[in-house]
Amino acid sequence: MTNAAIAAIFEHIADLLEFRGENVFRVRAYRNAARTVGSMVESLTSIRADRPLTDLDGIGSDLAARIGELLDTGKLALLDELKASVPAVAFDLMRVPGLGPKKAKVLIEGLNLSSLDDLEQACRDGRVKGLKGFGAKTESAILENIGFAKSPDRDRLLWNDADAIIQELLGWMRACPAVRRIDGAGSWRRGRETVGDLDLLVESDAPTVVMDHLRAWKETTSVLLSGDTKTSIRGPQGVQIDLRVIDAESYGAALQYFTGSKEHNVKLRSRARDRGLSINEYGVHRIPSDDRGGGAADVRHAGIAGRSEADVYAAVGLPWIPPEIREGGAEILLAERNSLPHLVELGEIRGDLHMHTNATDGEDTLGEMVRAAIERGLAYIAVTDHSQRVTMAHGLDRKRLLAQWSEIDRLNDSLAAEGDPPIVVLKGIEVDMLEKGGLDLPDELLEKADWVVASLHYGQNQPRDRITARIIEAIENPNVSVIGHPTGRLINRRQAYEVDIEAVIEAAARSGTFLEINANPWRLDLDDHHAAAAKKAGVKLVISTDAHSTRGLDVMRCGILQARRAGLEAKDVANTQTLAQLKKLMKK
Ligand code: DGT
Ligand code: CA
Ligand code: CA
Ligand code: ZN
After folding, report:
1. Domain identity same for 373 and 298
2. Could you tell me which residues come within 8 angstroms of residue 286 by beta carbon, excluding any fewer than 6 positions away?
3. Which residue's CA is the closest to the ligand 1 atom numbered 17?
4. Distance in angstroms (rounded) separating the CA atoms of residues 394 and 360
5. Which of 93, 175, 387, 546 has the fewest Cβ atoms within 10 Å of its own Cβ atom?
6. Model-level pTM greater than 0.90?
7. Distance CA 404, CA 437 (A)
8. Could you tell me which of 399, 401, 371 has the C-alpha nearest to residue 385?
9. Average pLDDT, the chain
């Protein structure tokens, strides 16, 4: 049983416990354990073999026993017991935005519901607004949102899609004269792989004007909520957009609060409490000395800090922390020691080492890809079309590959004809790791390439040992420069194949093979946890677009966000180096 599977079971248990109204600490313990387990690279099986599980952060003897049961039997009696006691409809209801376990319980029990359709009917009949804790507003909000829960398309937006929406919205909102400042916050600002809803903050002293302006946006399909300083609307692709209007003195505190993550904020608040301070979305306040240990006072002004995010962090003795690493991991500890990483930036990228042309499944010609790369300021690229096994993409055999390489030679010659070339094009290939093991093209050919990406596209359902062995075999091949999209997952669409990523990282470290962070917004693997583990093991990462068109070169920034979330610095990313430096880092 994988760590991810165990994490998912713990999440599920937390939901079930919460639905049953169990002790909040117990619920939280399972959620924390899910996070711990889900972000670990070393497998629980191997940890258990050499030390007690209770050594792990947040794993007590009870949770350790549950993990043991799962590892030994693949089952968990507690889960079966909980499942039997919670109706299946509860999970459907909890997918309606705004409905948590508590409200779902009241609805199901109060109205004897057994489906989302029942809930919809109850709203139409006006039976919901009579329930305890529900009003006419909530009833119409449920009706508004229920389609979202029923739609198969309810998945979270890819960051790149969320970004397109928020950029357009920022443009629209900036045209409003009452908007003095505007920022996107939440998971979008943290650069998460997917984004649930969009959070927007505006500084203004005319909230009504600003909120009216949002409602008047041509993409606004419905208004979900409107308060004095907060409005929620539904925008393109059904995404919810939460707007909050804030005074200048609290703007930084609000930006900090609504950027999250929740886990980061919890840790920051606890640090504040240790210093006799409280933090909320308005500012930082001194807790009166007779109120130590009490909750944060409900104050709606900035107090001692609030104007900028940096002020808020400074008030608790910390430097500003980049949003991409505000996930409640080690970032506050690192900040305290003044050892935050200098996260890699898009401007530091010098080359792109994975892309396709219309010789295989790309849209544009070699010449067009090269021109587009020059326009984007790259100093070098590798052209890496598919190999012959990828018949769907009309993959290259020896003859066609050699022909492409000759074309690249001629291109490089003509680029260098008038002195320093604007770009150097590396002769590459994305060679497939065959189902039966081995690579799709012979070594005597690969040996002549400047750059070899090895990827696994076929036989993705093979058992973990097989897949891991195929990848390690490729890593150990002296001609392979990098492993492409090492887990094969497609976000929201396809699970990663089963692979012992720890063993892959170890083999890469041993042999000096790079591992890719594929910048395609559907892929983004290695993910943040794996990339951080690779860095720790001494592996260099390569951030590559895997572009299938000239436009495809623009997703580099998505890969950069993933690398930043992993805490990578420029020195950890091979394609921030000059071509000469890169060649020195390569294993041959
Ligand atoms: P999402 O929208 O699911 O992709 O994720 P976020 O992180 O954007 O979450 P969202 O939109 O629910 O809230 C935005 C931020 O506001 C969140 O990252 C932290 C803060 N926040 C919201 N609710 C709470 C809360 O109950 N407690 C704390 N500490 N912070 C919260
Ligand atoms: Ca959000
Ligand atoms: Ca939100
Ligand atoms: Zn590719």
Report:
1. no
2. 276, 277, 303, 304
3. 260
4. 5
5. 175
6. no
7. 26
8. 401
9. 93
